[in-house]
Model the fold of this input.
Amino acid sequence: MAFSPLNWFWGLFSLDIGIDLGTANTLINIRGKGIVINEPSWVALDKRTRDPIAIGAQARAMVGRTPANVVAIRPLRDGVISEYEITQAMLEYFIGKAHQQSIVPLPKPRVVVGIPSGATEVEKRAVFDAAMAAGAREVNLVHEPSAAAIGAGLPVNDVQGTMIVDIGGGTTEVAAIAMGGVVVSRSLRVAGDELDQDIINYIRNKYNLFIGDRMAEKVKTTIGSAYPMKEELTFVVRGRNLVTGLPEAIEVSSVEIREAMSSSITVIVKTIRDAIDEAPPEIVSDLMDSGICLAGGTSQLKNLSERLSSDLNVRVWVAEDPMTCVARGCGIILENKGEFSSFLVGLERDSVRRTLS
Done:
C-alpha cells in the first residue's frame, strides 16, 4: 500500500486493534494495552426486524432461553462468516466497546484480523469488508496459525523450523513456519464444535437423553480428555429424556466422553501427521528439537498434548494462555508491522485493499 501522510498522521492517535474473530469467541487486542475484550461470538436478534438485541456474553446467556420472537445465533461457522450483516454489527459493537477505553474521541482504527489459512477469496473479502464497514480505517488480514505462532512467542523469523497447531471452536489450523514464512499448512474444519456435537450424539444414542450445546461444552471442559487420565472423572448430565419427554439426570464418565470424541480427535491427529509428512526433512528434524506448540481454546482439552506426543512421536506442549495467542499475535504484528509484514495476507487483484480516511 502506498504511503499516505494522512494515514500516518491518524495512526499516531488511533487505537489500533488486533482481532481474533473466532467461531466461539472474539478477542480484541488494543496496541499498547493488550487484550481488552474476550467475549463469545453470539448475537441475539429480533426475528422480525433482524435487529441485534444483545451481543457477546449477554447474548450467549440467552441461548436456549429466548422467547419466540428472539433468536440467539453465532454469525460465524467453521471460522468464516456465515451471516455477513450480523458479523458486521458484532464487530461494530466490539470495536466501539474497545474505543470506550479512551476518554477522548479517536480516529478510526487500523485493524489486523486473523482468518483461517484455508479461507477462500470470497471468505477473505467478507472478513475484510465487514471490518471496514464496522469502522476500521485500514484492514490487514493474517492467517490464524501465523498469528498464533507469533503470539505464542515462537521464533517465526529464525532459520530453524517450528510448528503451531491452533485448535479453536470451528477450525484446526496446522502450520510449519521458518524464515518468516509458512512452509506447510493445513486447515481442518473439525475442532471444538465438532467435539461438542460428538458428545451430544453419544449421549442421545446411548441414553436417549437430549442435551444442548452448553451442557455438551460443560461436559467436555469438565471431564473430557484425549488420553487416559490417572484418575478418571464423572459428571452429572441433565437433559430431556427422548422417550418420556421428561427431565432426567445421568452420570457419565470421562472414559465414555473420551470414546465419544475419539473419531474427531483421530481426524485432527491425522491432519497434523499429514502436515509433518509433507514437511521437508530439515523441518522435521527441527521439530524433534523444538516440538509442536498447541494454541486455541480446544488445546486445553485434558491430556491432548500427551495424546499427540504419543501418536506423533514428537514433544507437544501447550502455549501459555493458548486461547489468546491469535489476538496477542495480531497485536504484536500491529506493533512490529515491518518485522512481520511477510505474514500479512493479500487479496486478489479485484479485491485490492481500500483505505478510508
Q: What stands out?
A: The two ends are 14 Å apart (CA to CA). The chain has three domains: 5-38+84-147+325-351, 154-190+265-323, 192-260. The longest strand covers residues 181-188.
